[in-house]
Amino acid sequence: MHKLIRRAAVATAPVATAAGASTEGGYRHGGCSHGGRRAGLRRRAWAGTCGAWRLTETAAPVAFVLIITAIGLATPPDIHLASLLIAAPALTAAISTTRTTAGTAALSLTAAVICDVQDGLLRSPILPTHVAALLAVSFFLVAFCSARERNRREATRLRAISEAAQHVVLRPLPRRIENLRLASVYRAAETMAEVGGDLYAAARTPYGTRLLIGDVKGKGLQALDDTATLLGAFREAAHQHPTLPRLAAALEGSVRRHVSEVREVDANASERFTTALLVEFPPGDCAMRTVSCGHPLPLLLRDGRITALASPAPAPPLGLASLDPAAYRQDTFPLAPRDLLLLYTDGLAEARDGSGAFYSMTDRGIPRNAAGSDPESLLREVLDDLLRHTDGQLNDDVALVAVQCAPAV
Prior knowledge:
This protein has 409 residues and is α+β, with helices and mostly antiparallel strands. It contains ten helices and 13 strands. The chain has helices at residues 2-7, 33-74, 87-95, 98-118, 126-169, 220-237, 244-262, 346-349, 361-364, 375-389; strands spanning 22-24, 27-29, 176-177, 180-187, 198-205, 208-216, 274-281, 287-293, 299-302, 305-308, 331-334, 340-344, 398-405. A six-stranded antiparallel beta sheet has the order 3-4-13-12-9-10. It has a five-stranded antiparallel beta sheet with strand order 5-6-7-8-11, with helices on one face. It has a two-stranded antiparallel ribbon with strand order 1-2. β1 (22-24) and β2 form a beta hairpin. α4 (98-118) packs antiparallel against α5 and α6 (220-237) packs antiparallel against α7 (244-262). Mean pLDDT is 81; it is low at 1-40.
């Protein structure tokens, strides 16, 4: 199981969002009736395209064989075109399935025999040479197609396993907690990537709604192990500690115990750490408290402007921090109704374009259609803008959480 997950992909864009979300554009966001109709139209269009492509896969090699055969029968006997027919199964293997490749090979073999017989080569060594060459090449082509299809099926299973593992660890956030509206998105850097180390979580506690977003050092099983440990610790400790500094100290203790346990099997366990940001929204109040453990504070979107919030004295990342709550600085920020907060991992801040320029929302401004929008629309616009900046190529996983202080219902 571990080997499968290590080689698996996080979905084509393995993405987590609010419960009941639907996949669109390589990431997930909250669904709606209009989105469902658009998705249905896209599925039908895709089904039609696939059907046309499958027809082309079959018709093109057959047409090629028939054309070569017709030309061979029409040319003088001293011109032998049967050897050209070996191209038909080769081209088919590049674009189609094992069954279609085998069928094309059989058709090509038949056509080659017909052409050679027509050219008077029935008793010539050229005929068996053509047949042997076609059989040998076709055998290897069919074997290649069969192996490729097995790999594709395995990759599909691996992606499903990886996505399931990611969703078990990284639970979707609810759309609303108390007076907060939430949305989240997770975008893997590559389709066939290992499980990433970006994480987020939310908890409704007696002390208010608490959020965690972080980035684990490394990737693969190690990152998944560290992510699961920190998320499990947060979901339990968030309800037990009345202040964020105490919560941060408790999480540091959990991370240290985890590192101590894995040190026996990982010689580099002491280098494992996680940047993390703890955010708290007091009950019934539009205000935000934060404790940063080496992680950037949220971006604040207010009245069409973007402000990068900052802490004067962030703590070191978890795993390298202190067990003393007094070592953690808590910052408080007043919020206005409808303010939007964007929590993010370094996959956003460190994304580069073709010239090497970093992506910066404060420099680029609020993406189009995002001003005054809801959390889900904001994430959709930000991710689209990020992909435009990077020409669709991300070098690191990206996790985003958008929060809006809204009137309670």
